[in-house]
Amino acid sequence: MNTVNEPGRSKRPMTTDPMESAPVSSTTLERLAIIAASALVISGTVHLMEAPGTMGDATYLGLSFYAHFFVTLAAAIGILMGSRMAWGLGAFVSAASIGMYVISRTVGLPGQSGEQWTEWSGVIAVAAEAVALVATLAGLRVVRTVRSTRLVATA
After folding, report:
1. Cβ proximity of 65 and 47 under 8 Å
2. Do strands 2-4 and 12-14 pair parallel, antiparallel, or not at all (unpaired)?
3. Which pTM was predicted?
4. In whole angstroms, what is the distance from residue 87 CA to residue 22 CA?
5. Which position has the higher pLDDT, 41 or 155?
C-alpha cells in the first residue's frame, strides 16, 4: 500500500479502494452534528405544536407526540455533545417516525381521524426526519471511522 506524507502530519495509507472511506476531519462530523440536531429539533417542534390537537382524537397519540419532542431534543443535545448513543437514538427515532407517518397515512392508527398525505405539518416533519436519518447514519459512520482511526494510530 502506498503512503501519502502531508506536511505536518505523519504518513497515512493511501488507498485506491473506493469502498474505503477517505480521511475524515472533525469539521465533517461537526457539520453532520449541526444538520442532524437541527433536523431533529424541527421534527420535535412540529410534533410539539401538533400534540394538543391530537389529544382529543386519541390521547395516546398526543402523548406520543410530546414524548417525540423530548426524545428528539435529548438526541439533538447528545449529538451536539458528541455522544455516539445519541447518534443512534436520532437515527432510530427518525426511522420510526417516518414509518409511523406511512402507517398513519395508509392503514391508520386507532382513534385517529383520517390524515392527509399533504398536511403541512406532516410533510415538514417527515422531511426533517428524512434529513435527520441521513445525517445521523452518516454521523454514525464518521464516528466509527474516526474512532477506528484513533485506535489504529495509538496501537
Report:
1. yes
2. antiparallel
3. 0.77
4. 21
5. 41
